[in-house]
Design brief:
Helix content is about 55%, strand content about 5%. It is mainly α and about 170 residues long. The longest helix has 28 residues, at about 140-165. This is Zincin-like metallopeptidase domain-containing protein. InterPro entries: MPTase-PolyVal. It holds the Pfam family MPTase-PolyVal.
Length: about 170
């Protein structure tokens, strides 16, 4: 169809949100490869083992950016060479479970590093994925357990990076 029939989203605009140096250092210390480009989506690419983030300036608040980054970093922990969680999931329920893990991990990690989680967004996100998994009454507990493992892994990596920097 001709281009005039497509409704394209507005390009991301710079809202002036600025990075927090201590949080930038924390996320860098994890060892995750984080690419920031003008592409307006945040995601973890399992094939390249890289996290993609839009610029922080396109977020309304820095907490939104770091919460989103925490979500994607939780996915990153699931790679085969780390906690090997992602390879176990291959269908829609499994995808829903991984998204639940990532969102719970986001809240846990944000609480640890002093970023105010955006609970309204997280609650809507978790509620949607729980609906998709409602026949598994223990899913939330299994997801929370996996999220805790992910956050423990992330925190241990940053502690190790701090030790190495101090030496």
């Amino acid at each position: 169809m001709p281009a005039e029939f497509y409704i394209l989203p507005d390009p991301p605009r710079d809202l002036g949100t600025v990075a927090a140096p201590e949080l930038e250092a924390f996320f860098a210390a994890t060892g995750a490869q984080i690419d920031v480009t003008e592409e307006p989506r945040a995601y973890y690419n399992i094939r390249t083992d890289r996290i993609h983030m839009p610029p922080i300036g396109t977020f309304h608040r820095a907490a939104g950016y770091y919460g989103t980054l925490a979500h994607e970093l939780t996915h990153w922990t699931g790679a085969t060479k780390r906690l090997d969680r992602l390879g176990r999931f291959s269908d829609r329920k499994a995808y829903a479970f991984e998204e639940l893990v990532a969102e719970i991990g986001n809240c846990m990690l944000c609480a640890q590093i002093g970023v105010e989680p955006e609970f309204d967004q997280s609650a809507a996100y978790v509620e949607g994925w729980l609906e998709a998994m409602k026949e598994d009454s223990r899913a939330i507990f299994r997801a929370a357990s996996e999220a805790q493992k992910a956050v423990d892994y992330i925190m241990e990596r940053t502690v190790q990076a701090d030790r190495m920097a101090a030496e």
